[in-house]
Design brief:
Blueprint: E1 5-9, H1 14-27, E2 32-36, H2 43-47, E3 51-53, H3 59-69, E4 71-76, H4 82-87, H5 89-110, E5 114-116, E6 119-120, H6 144-163, E7 167-168, E8 170-172, E9 174-176, H7 189-199, E10 202-205, E11 212-217, H8 218-230, E12 242-243, E13 247-250, H9 251-259, E14 266-269, H10 274-279, H11 288-294, H12 302-318
Parallel strand pairs: 1-2, 1-4, 2-3, 4-5, 5-7, 6-8, 8-12, 9-11, 10-14
Antiparallel strand pairs: 11-13
Helix pairs in contact: 3-5, 5-6, 7-9, 7-12
C-alpha cells in the first residue's frame, strides 16, 4: 500500500514555506502537497512538488484536496499572526479558529494519521509568570491572536480525548529566518534587523531596547516540529501545547551581537503598538515537558544563529536577492 501524502496549509508563510521544503527533502517532492490561500509561491516551492490554492475555512475545498492526493497527515500552518490580528480581529478569528475546526473535522471524518497544529507564546498574557514561564500556567492573552491560540489548544486536546485524533502542537516562540521575510508578527523586529543591518547599516526597532522575548532559529523550529511529529504518541502526556525554547535576548543584546560582525550598525528604538503585545508575553520559557516527553534540544544559540544568518543574507545581498 502506497504511503499517504502530507498536506501543509499556510505553505507560503514564514514557517510553512521552509517546513514544506524540509518535508519534501525527507519524503520526496511528490509526497508533500503545499497549499496557500492567495499568495503565489516562490519558484522553488512551486516547482519542487504539488501546490494547491486552498482556503482552510472552506471544508469542501479541503475535502477535495485530501481526496485528490490521498492525504494522511496535515501540518496546519495557516494563520493570521499577532500584529495583523489586532488590525483585523474578525479575520483572525475566522482563519485561526474556523480554519482549525475545518481541519480537525476533516481529520476526524477522513481518519487522518496526524495533525500538527502550532500554538504560540501569544497564548500567554500579562498575568502569566514572565520568566521561565511554566508549561501549566495562567492563559489569559490580551490579543485576538492569543485568544485563538488558547482556544485552539483546547480544541485540539478535545479532539484527542473525544475522537482519538492524533493532534500535536508547539507553542512557538519568535521565529527568525534567513529565507522568508516577516509576515506580520510582534517578533518581526528580530528578523528585520538582520536584513536592514546588511542593506542599510541601520535599523529602527519598534520595541524598546530592554524588551526580552524567547526566540528560535528556523532550523530549530523545523527540527522541533519534525521531532514532535516522530514522537511516540503513547508517551506524550501533553499534546497541543508544548513550550519549546532555544534562547532569549533583549532587542539591545541582539543589536550588540550583530555589531560584532557589523560594527557600524546604528539602531534606534521607536516603540509602537506592538510594544504592548510584547510586554504581555514571556521573557523565557520552561520547556522541560518537551525535553522529557520527546527529547527536545535546540542546536543554535544567539551567537551561532547570528553568524549563520549574516553569512546567508550577505550572499543573497551580493546576488541582489536580499528581499526575494
Amino acid at each position: 500500500m502506497a504511503e499517504k501524502r502530507i498536506l501543509v496549509t499556510g505553505a507560503v508563510g514564514q514557517i510553512g514555506s521552509e517546513l514544506t521544503m524540509a518535508l519534501r527533502e525527507r519524503h520526496g517532492g511528490d509526497s508533500v502537497v503545499a497549499a496557500g490561500r492567495k499568495t503565489k509561491p516562490r519558484p522553488e516551492l512551486r516547482d519542487s512538488g504539488p501546490f494547491e490554492f486552498a482556503d482552510v475555512t472552506d471544508r469542501e475545498v479541503l475535502d477535495g484536496v485530501i481526496k485528490k492526493y490521498d492525504i494522511g497527515t496535515i501540518y496546519h500552518m495557516a494563520a493570521i499572526l499577532s500584529a495583523v490580528g489586532e488590525e483585523k480581529p474578525l479575520l483572525c478569528w475566522n482563519v485561526n479558529m474556523n480554519g482549525l475546526h475545518t481541519v480537525l473535522e476533516a481529520a476526524r471524518e477522513h481518519s487522518l494519521e496526524k495533525v500538527i497544529c502550532p500554538s504560540s507564546i501569544a497564548a500567554f498574557g500579562p498575568e502569566t509568570p514572565r520568566d521561565n514561564t511554566p508549561q501549566e500556567t495562567v492563559l489569559r492573552p490580551t490579543t485576538m491572536y492569543g485568544v485563538t491560540k488558547v482556544a485552539g489548544e483546547l480544541l485540539c486536546d478535545y479532539y484527542v480525548r473525544r475522537f482519538d485524533v492524533d493532534v500535536r502542537g508547539l507553542r512557538y516562540p519568535g521565529i527568525i529566518s534567513s529565507e522568508t521575510l516577516p509576515g506580520g508578527g510582534t517578533t518581526d523586529y528580530a528578523v528585520a534587523i538582520y536584513y536592514e543591518a546588511i542593506d542599510k547599516g541601520k535599523y529602527t526597532c519598534f520595541v524598546r531596547e530592554d524588551t526580552a522575548l524567547p526566540m528560535m532559529y528556523m532550523p530549530d523550529c523545523i527540527k522541533a516540529t519534525l521531532d514532535l511529529t516522530d514522537a511516540d504518541f503513547s508517551k506524550l502526556k501533553h499534546h497541543s501545547d508544548f513550550n519549546v525554547g532555544a534562547f532569549s535576548f533583549t532587542a539591545g543584546e541582539l543589536a550588540a551581537e550583530i555589531r560584532k560582525h557589523i560594527p557600524e550598525l546604528e539602531v534606534t528604538y521607536e516603540p509602537d503598538s506592538r510594544q504592548k503585545i510584547a510586554d504581555s508575553w514571556p521573557r523565557s520559557l520552561d520547556d522541560s515537558a518537551a525535553r522529557e516527553e520527546w527529547g527536545w534540544e535546540p542546536g543554535y544559540d544567539l551567537a551561532t544563529m547570528t553568524q549563520d544568518m549574516l553569512e546567508k543574507l550577505r550572499k543573497r545581498h551580493a546576488e541582489g536577492k536580499l528581499y526575494q
